[in-house]
User: Fold this.
Amino acid sequence: MIDTHAHLNDKRLFTDIEQIISEMHDDNLSAIITVGYDRKSSEDCYKISQKYSDVYCAVGIHPHDAKTAKKEDYERFSQLIKDDKVVAIGEIGLDFHYDFSPRDVQQRVFLEQLELAHFLKAPVIIHLRDAYQVMYNLLRQNKHLLEYGAVLHCYSGSKEMLREYQKLGLFVSFGGSITFKNAVDKPDVVRETNLDMMMLETDCPYLTPAPFRGKTNYPKYVNLVAKKVAEFLQKSYTEIDEITTKNAKSFFGIK
Assistant:
């Protein structure tokens, strides 16, 4: 199984990296993608990917940090993406929940990175919160920039909106939030997802799945997400494992 979205550079996980990596086989993990959210974190993720053979990375600027984006950041990302261990531009997107960066700046920086990814022929990892219609409009108007793939990471929107995103060819990734007791809409959202366009993640150390909610999240808990998806779809864990792993390998170009 592949954890398609982790933050191994986070201080809550960084000191445990050696153990996380050494236990990957026992935890049914074949790969982990550690994801940046600004220039420094992207550099850190890149360094981690260089040290461990089964760790890959994505580089990009999160909407929270959009106000800090510089041309030099994009130039550095363009250099890093040449390495086979750098598999995507991300996480990029819109977050109208916290508004840590002005909304117009978020949209501009998102489109700049979407254009960069297209120029570099790289897929993108999209962070999206409380901006579902705005994001849809931007992607529909710039559908040509989705040529090399895009995934909505840790999707938390409605099944109706998901239906429209899938028409644009977007992949969808689910994390620990689908296991929460108050996530009453998640079974229908998961069932609405085209299984051939589904991936799994942890977003660790955040969004720890039940029964460990409230504690630090780890890549191995992606197995709990897979089991919950299997439950929702009335399929076997093994089938969900095989399909989502195949999807992740194809999407990110992992051999």
Remarks:
- The mean pLDDT is 98.
- The two ends are 13 Å apart (CA to CA).
